[in-house]
Amino acid sequence: MTQHIEIKNNTFILHPLSVVFWKQKSILIISDVHLGKVSHFRKFGAAVPQKAIQMNFDLMTEAVQQFSPKTICFLGDLFHSSINSEWHLFETWIAQQDAEVVLVEGNHDIISPLKYEKIGVTVVAEIQADGFLLTHHPEEREGFFNFSGHIHPAVRLRGAGRQTLRLPCFYKSNTQMIVPAFGQFTGHFTISPKKTDKVFAVTKEAVFEV
Amino acid sequence: MTRDERYHIAEHWFSEQNWKPFAFQKQTWKAFLQGKHGLLNAPTGSGKTYALWFPIVLDFIHKNPEYKTRHKKGLKAIWITPLRALSQEIKQSAERVASDLGTHMTVGIRTGDTSTKERAQQKRQMPDLLITTPESLQLLLATKGYPKLFKDCSAIVVDEWHELLGTKRGVQMELGLSRLRAISDNIRIWGISATIGNLDQARQVLLGPNSEALEKSVLIKANLKKKITVKSIIPKEMETFPWRGHLGLRLLEDVIPIINNSKTTLLFTNTRSQCEIWFQKILEKHPEYAGEIAMHHGSINKETRVWVENAIRNENLKAVVCTSSLDLGVDFAPVETVVQIGGPKGIARFLQRAGRSGHRPGKESVIYFLPTHAIELVEASALQQAVKQKAVEDRMPYLNSYDVLLQYLTTLALSDGFYPQEIYQEILQTFCYQALSEDQWQWLLNFLVKGSQSLQSYDEYKKVEVEEDGKFKVNNRGVAMRHRFQIGTIVGDANLTVRYQKGGYIGTIEEYFISKLSPGDVFTFAGRNLEFIRIKEMQVHVRNSSKKTKKVPAWGGGRMTLSAQMSKLLREELYKVSLERKEQSRELKSLAHIFKQQRLESLVPKPDEFLIETFKTRDGYHHLFYPFEGRFVHEAMGSLLGYRISLLSPITFSLAFNDYGFEILSDQEIDIEAIIDNNLFTTDYMLSDLEKSLNSTEMARRKFRDIAVISGMVFTGYPNKGVKMKHLQSSSQLLFDVFRDFEDDNLLYQQAFTETFEHQLEEGRLRTALERIATQQIIWKSCTKPTPFSFPLITDRMSREKLSSEKLADRIKRMAAILTKK
Question: What are phi and psi of B45, to 5 degrees?
Fold first, then answer.
């Protein structure tokens, strides 16, 4: 089901819902949800099914129930664009959370931090803790292990008989871990891993190291 | 003026040119002047323009007796052409007749190439005859107050109707006609079509089934006799001629004497990249042709194309390498010879191309067939038969294309708005939507207005609004602007324009190709070697380069398949291999050594045999099946068989297919006895099995791409503008998944499947093919190495479809072991 990995004497759990749980700190890391994307498209005349909106919230709730974290950390691109009707749903969802909620700002996050603070979400540029660095864009920084999102990584697997398969993945190098996109209505970018990298493919039921 | 007096004007004009009108021209004049609608079946270069343009002018003369002194302004007739390139030619003939007869009628062109200034002028004062494309006609329907423009229009002529029929452009045309019938008081609808198998149906689609117009219509056939000679180029060294390939360059030297012996030669290739390569290679090997040969394909800029077309007419060129861009229209008298490089896949297309030579009534057409690999010579042999039997294919019209209808309704909502009851009655008259139910109609209206079938809170969906009196109207400027940019039904990859750094437009190229280049790379395009500098605002900047390169852009789109008629002829030719030598064609005889090789471990099937071959290579276990039915049917059959095999035991494999057969490649061996014993080729449950096969979902996913764009679900961005619309661009893939997961009763989602089954998998043909196999004896040959028949299939690494019935986890575990790491 899940994968447990040790980095710098800390334990991280990679979950099939495309989230990471930092055990020692009790932080749930969720990246690239792109809330509001469906509504944004609808506002511009593309009739994306509305049912897809609720799915993001249901899955977020499921992830939170799984780990009961002290902190929920969104690694950027929480909202796809400017504020729209999905903000109400988000507000309601936040009100139901016991955990502290932090947003590490991403390139899509153009909604004012004041709005977030009003509903109890702290907005920061990055988080540093115990030699770990949490950012939206992948970053190399001396002395830190970096967790980031932004890329929406996916991996292409090949088998005999010329079969191939593309799956979202957690993408880890010696100094970095890139988290897959959580959002239901988001695309993927196929990575080309190096020999020293580790790749964890995500399916509905499980996370596999490949 | 009596009708006879009017005929006399026309006949007099012909005799002044020393011409005699053909019977079909006179028949058309008569029918038109009697107020009839109709379909004229006549080939290009036969004088079809005069057949319809004359009665339009004569009708005008009749209605305006003082036409020589007082000209009544306004649009009188519309001439629709599917290719912009043809409009100039039609304009010239029309203008000539108009002025020779002493009228003051004006002729205007309105296409994507028309300047904004000219368009504005036209809107103020329409020309008497407007030559335009189906897309530009839709754009006119998107302008405010359009009914006034068309009110006095007395005729619409749809040229090259066979090209539109069986495409969504044809559907768009049906819709345009349904509107014109309602707003023009007295419009006559005429189509012109080359010979196709279903001419009667073509007339029905044009005029509407059960319509009054159809009752009052005629089908006129030109019946011009044309002698066509097909000559195959047979390689001198057949033994070393390759078993696979698609370029045909090996026979380049055989083409040279053909070019030298003829005034002008057209060399038809099947793809634009093949066209580029042939042009380069001829010049490389024969620099003496510099300036005397040219290239013509759809991605080259318009000026160059027009220049080439004029140069052909003026006999300035020895040869032109071209694609289907020169299939249609334009009368090129100097063309004496045509060369077809590679299989043309369809008989109608081959005949059309042959007809490009000896392009004068009564002259003989000569076409050479140049094979790109050995087995293609069987195709050449089959084409000989096709010409003898005059077999031609049908063009299958679309039914219930919701995407095109949604686009059309948005168009109407954009200009003057529409009342649903009125428009519903109009579209029920069309062929495409004759069976559209009220429920479906209501669904479409809801989709436009609410973006769903039920209203939900907090929804900001915005597109079409319903005004107080029930009129459907677009009031949002953003919606309107985006829609205008997207009118049309031809969906391609994002196209970038290629320019020199200092300006100078060269053509368009697909983004996909450019994305693989880095600055400094050299590629061949429009016959030049160009160095890629950068991409800036949807433009590719390049400079000339003297470096050699092998990079040639590949354009996506249309891998062609053998038509049903062609496949049948192909099989029949193949069966002749078992006959005595003297009963075989030249082409078949030349392949004797290949058939000998084929028989070493396998066989060449006879009419009552169905061949299966198996062998193992480094790639895995190969299982080959040869129905000889064309690649689409093979795709479907492979998918169906694959699914049924996967039910027997968990297995993963990939499929490859070409016009002769298909291959199932797996890392496990498939038990062929089990396929035979379990009767896996049965037609029972065919449709439901097909639906369940993963492949049909993948195919529907690809169909959905076009549907999403046409229906306005996906916005492709503004053409040639740097405007960043990224926040609105999503892939149709993503949308497809969202519909699958949340709204699988969506009509557009379902349309993707219907189109897959009817147009891609050709369900009907698949059934017939399976029924034929049921009467044949299945022969399984277990071989030690690849056979000549299998070779083109097993080396095809491009078009592979995958299918699996294994658990994902099991697959990943096995694949993980061989994950390719850099």
Answer: 80, 10
Question: pLDDT over 90 for what percent of chain B?
Answer: 39
Nearest to A162 among B460, B800, B816 (CB): B800
Q: What distance in Å separates the CA atoms of residue B780 and residue B658, rounded to the nearest whole number?
A: 20
Q: Are B53 and B128 in contact (CB under 8 A)?
A: no
Check whether B326 has a pLDDT greater than 70: yes
- For an interface test with A, which of B734, B798, B803 has the most A Cβ atoms less than 10 Å from its Cβ? B734
Contacts of A187 in chain B (CB under 8 A): 730-731, 733-734
Does the pLDDT value for residue B775 go beyond 60?
yes
Window B:656-695, CB contacts with A under 8 Å: 665-667
List pLDDT tens digits, range B200-248: 999 999 999 988 999 999 999 987 777 888 899 998 887 777 777 778 8
What band does B810 get if pLDDT is binned at 50, 70 and 90? low
Region B415-424: mean pLDDT is 96
Among candidate residues B293, B327, B328, the one with its CA nearest the CA of residue B312: B293
Q: In angstroms, rounded to a whole number, what is the distance separating the alpha carbons of residues B525 and B517? A: 14
Distance CA(B315)–CA(B399), nearest Å, equals 45
Chain B from 483 to 512: CB within 8 A of any A CB: 483
Q: Is the pLDDT reported for residue B97 higher than 50?
A: yes
Token digits for A157?
A: 């697997």
Do B697 and B749 contact (CB within 8 A), yes or no?
Answer: no
**B510–chain A nearest CA distance, Å:** 20
Write the ipTM.
Answer: 0.85
Helical H segments across chain A, by residue range:
37-43, 51-67, 86-95, 113-118
> Looking at beta carbons, which pairs linking B793-797 to residues 24 or more positions away fall under 8 Å?
B793/B624, B793/B656, B793/B657, B793/B658, B793/B660, B793/B661, B793/B662, B793/B663, B794/B617, B794/B619, B794/B622, B794/B624, B794/B656, B794/B663, B794/B665, B795/B244, B796/B656, B796/B658, B797/A162
Distance CA B687, CA B17 (A): 60
3-state secondary structure A134-163: ECCCCCCCCCCEEEECCCCEEEEEEECCCE
Closest Cβ–Cβ partner in B452, B458, B728 for A85? B458
Q: Is A194 on the interface with B (CB under 8 A)?
A: yes
The shortest CB-CB distance from B809 to any of A48, A80, A206 is to A206
The Cα-based distances of B779 to B69, B605, B669, B672, B683 in angstroms read 80, 9, 18, 10, 20
Given this model, what pLDDT does residue B417 score?
96
Chain B touched by A161 (CB under 8 Å): yes
Select the more confidently predicted residue: B759 or B723.
Answer: B759
Relative to beta strand A145-148, strand B777-782 is unpaired
CA–CA min distance A81, chain B (Å): 8
Chain-chain contact of A187 with B460 (C-beta, under 8 angstroms) = no
Residues 628-657 of chain B with CB under 8 A from chain A are 652-654
Size of interface A-B (CB pairs under 8 A): 158
* Mean predicted lDDT score pLDDT of chain B: 85
The C-alpha angle with vertex A52 and arms to A51 and A54, in degrees rounded to 5, equals 70
Chain B interface includes A71 (CB < 8 A): no
One-letter amino acid identity for B61? I
Q: What is the strand order of the sheet B107-110 is part of? A: B107-110, B129-132, B77-80, B155-158, B188-193, B37-41, B217-221
pTM metric for this prediction: 0.81
A32-74 pLDDT tens trace: 999 998 888 888 888 888 888 899 999 999 999 999 999 999 9
